[in-house]
Amino acid sequence: MFWKRVKELPRTLTFRVGVWYASIFLISAVLLLWLVYFLLGAAINRKDRDMIEARLREYVSVYQHGGIPTLRDWTGRVNKARAQRMFFVRVAKSDGTVELVVMPEDWSEHDLDMLGDGTRVLPKGWTRIVRDPEMDLTVASTILQDGTIFQVGRSSESRSILLAKFRQVFLVIIVPVIVLGLSGGIILTNRMMRPVRNVIAAAMAIISTGRMDVRVPVRAADDELRDLAVLFNRMLECNEELFRALRDSLDNVAHDLRTPLARLRATLEDALQDQKKQETVQEYIGQALEETDRVQTIIDTLMEVARAEAGLMKLRIAQTDICALIKDAVELYAHVAEDKNVSVATQFSNGCSAAVDAVRMRQVFANLLDNAIRHTLSAGQVSISASPRDGEIEVKVRDTGVGINETELPRIWERLYRGDKSRSEHGLGLGLNLVKAIVEAHRGRVEVSSVPCTGSEFRVYLPFSKAVT
Known about the structure:
Strand content: 15-25%
CATH superfamily of the largest domain: YNR034W-A-like
Number of strands: 12
């Protein structure tokens, strides 16, 4: 198991990002150290030249005040005090005759030959003699007013030693830098990828167990990965709700279809067994057709809701008097209300005209009226009104029925949902869902408020439009 994980490590994003981080870290460290090395070498070289120029001015001053003997005595004392850092000194006449030469121990006659006799020295200039890749000689030259040529120089041995130590330190620290960069990159990447691994773990748990209540832990940091976890959890909640609704819908469909299908089968079996008159057979066929129509109604309503929610419902939009549609629905359910001893009152205002599909909108009002009458007890009241309000047409359907429990209010618009109070009553559980789908297809909205044992009020809001003149 361990070796399998080791083999799979190079293909993981954590490892690849860690290697990239370590590479960038290493390259940056090398570039930085190289820059420091370059600047250090330049600073040492500049310091050496400053020292040489200072020594040149000092020796010229001594020469001008005391001549060659005083200069020889002075250079001897200086070089004796600085045995490890002796300066080269040469004084020559304009014709090349050398009057004084002070040669440090690390200089040779060959170096002197490479320097020349000084007759071609510029009034003020520098000469650099490269002895090997690690060592060079730097000489400053000047010509006095009497033509005397002065040259002072020193080797770069001390500078080479210091830079060599720096290179050694560089080689020593580069290994820890590589280890630090790689480990740091892997640790940081591993920490950064933890929310992504949590998402993967949640997805795998859902796939393997089928549980939709799995959630991704949300980190405290307010960043994009936290937003990813929050959005993923919201998606899971939506999926859980959809699966729950789908499961409930299938249960309800099975419940609603089982009864008419069972009746249909029983009717057909009775027809086969009953050898009586033709009228009896026709009665059985009529009952079978009624149950078939009921199944067909459930399927057609489901298809209509699906088309409306998908935005595929075909609407024949025309300027329509909303009050007239409500009156048609009231007339349609007048006998139903009378049989149940429920009074239906209407109240209309002028200017209730909107661009709607008259057939679909009449179906909306009929469903709301049917729902109100069915859930209102005998001697109860149902009122329906329409009036313009804030750029919309508001239609209210109010009843004095059993009301709706607060916990069920958000679910009454769901497909095939029926509350416990209506489970035993006739109905498909599709009426309110179809109402909401049709109203929203007209770019309207529907709301509800209810008090248990007191009644409910459904409100439909449609975009207001003036009547065509």
